[in-house]
Design brief:
D-Maltodextrin-Binding Protein, domain 2; 11 strands; elongated; about 325 residues; six-stranded mixed β-sheet; alpha/beta
Length: about 325
């Protein structure tokens, strides 16, 4: 009878080695889990605490931490128009632990300054959290009730009209410059440092017009005549105000946004998991209600959709900035 003991010993040894290999590989497999147990995820907000960007970031951070059972902290890294915080994230390890929570200025600045990073190449776009339309507002006393009448009024009195904005290079500056280009107008740009002084200047009749952020300016909008909104559709809470597109002006479809990004090189599986959980959070009734209460439109784009928005917005804003010769100083 053939002796099978050597073969049996070999089989047992092979099984033992295989089992050892599986056990040895277990820690490596555990390390690839995202988020890793005991890790902390950091949201970098490149603007001061207290604003809409900060409020949205903290809402998403709390929900993400609750879902994944890990700390999700918000760090405000303000300075240089948001570029300091963005650069920090661009240079961070691509492990899904550091997130940039920023606004549309990320792509607008591509045509306004020399950046230490490429907004389209050095980040993985995760999703738009919220969308912020702008509204062309004029004082109540203005003898114009729609965009066509306002354009005719400005043309009839050269050199007498102005438009106020949140500062040089902001969305409101780009939009006002586009209105000048499209309408053949000569309105003078008057920049302000933030929303409060801009609204006060409008209330004091120191300005002829302003492009107001629909969210932060919502409580003040009834004090003005509202002539047009950006975007391709009317706002649900301002259905009587037509879009620029409806009134024959092109190029006003892009809207402001708040979005999340990971550093370039982040593993696809990590980016997809982060995106999926973010979309679940943003589509929840509670979070949607919070976003809408801020006068914003809930976002929740897929990875691919947001990437297309970035490319489209960068091209659209870049075109206006070049044609209007917009400078930061």
């Amino acid at each position: 009878m053939k002796n099978t003991r050597p073969a049996r010993r070999l089989a047992l040894a092979a099984a033992g080695l295989a089992a050892f290999g599986l056990l040895a590989g277990a820690p490596a497999l555990a390390q690839t889990a995202y988020p890793a147990p005991g890790s902390t995820i950091k949201f970098v907000v490149p603007y001061p605490a207290g604003g809409a960007t900060d409020a949205l970031a903290r809402t998403v951070a709390q929900k993400l931490g609750d879902a994944w059972k890990v700390p999700v902290v918000v760090e405000n890294k303000a300075g240089a128009g948001g570029t300091i915080g963005a650069q920090q994230v661009a240079k961070s390890p691509a492990d899904g632990q550091t997130v940039l929570f920023t606004i549309v200025a990320l792509v607008q600045q591509m045509s306004l300054m020399n950046l230490p990073y490429d907004p389209l190449k050095d980040f993985v776009p995760i999703t738009r959290v919220a969308i912020s339309p702008s509204i062309l507002a004029v004082p109540k006393e203005t003898p114009a009730n729609n965009l066509k009448e306002f354009v005719a009024l400005v043309k009839s009195q050269p050199g007498k009209f102005s438009f106020g904005t949140y500062g040089a290079g902001t969305s409101s500056h780009i939009q006002g410059s586009l209105l000048n280009l499209q309408g053949g107008l000569d309105m003078v740009h008057v920049p302000y440092q933030g929303g409060a002084p801009l609204v006060n200047a409008m209330l004091g009749n120191q300005l002829s017009a302003a492009f107001l952020d629909a969210g932060s300016s919502r409580p003040h909008l009834p004090k003005f005549k509202l002539l047009a909104t950006t975007g391709s559709q009317r706002l649900s809470w301002l259905p009587e105000v037509p879009t620029f597109k409806e009134q024959g002006m092109a190029g006003f479809e892009p809207m402001g946004w708040f979005g999340m990004f990971l550093p370039a090189g982040t593993p696809k599986a990590v980016a997809e998991k982060f995106s999926a959980e973010s979309l679940r959070i943003l589509r929840s009734p509670e979070v949607k209600e919070k976003i809408e209460a801020m006068g914003l439109i809930p976002g929740a784009d897929s990875l691919e959709q947001f990437a297309e928005v970035l490319k489209s917005d960068a091209a659209a804003y870049g075109k206006v900035i070049k044609e209007a010769n917009i400078k930061l100083n």
